[in-house]
Amino acid sequence: MTEATPSTAPSATPSTGTAAGKATSTAASKASIIASATTAPGIPPESPPELAPAIALGNTSGIPPAIAPGLVASRVSIRHGRLIDPANGIDDLLDLHLADGKVLAVGEAPPGFEPERVLDATGQVVCPGLIDLCARLREPGQEHKGTIASETAAAAAAGITSLCCPPDTMPIIDTPAVAQLITRTAALAGKARVVPAGALTQGLAGEQLSEMATLRQAGCAVMCQAESPIINTLVLRRAMEYAATFGLTVIMRPENPFLRDNGCAHEGRVSAHLGLPGIPEAAETVALARDLEVAKQTGARVHFRALSCARSLEKLAAAQARGIAVSADVSAHQLILTEDDLEGFNSQCHLNPPLRTAADRDALREAVRTGLVTAVCSDHQPHEPDAKLAPFPSTAPGMAALETLLPLLLRLVAAGVLDLPTAIARLTCGPAAILGLPLGNLAPGRAADVCVFDPEAKWRVGPKTWLSQGRNTPFWGERFKGRVTWTLLGGQIVHERRL
Question: What is the pTM of this model?
Answer without folding.
Answer: 0.87
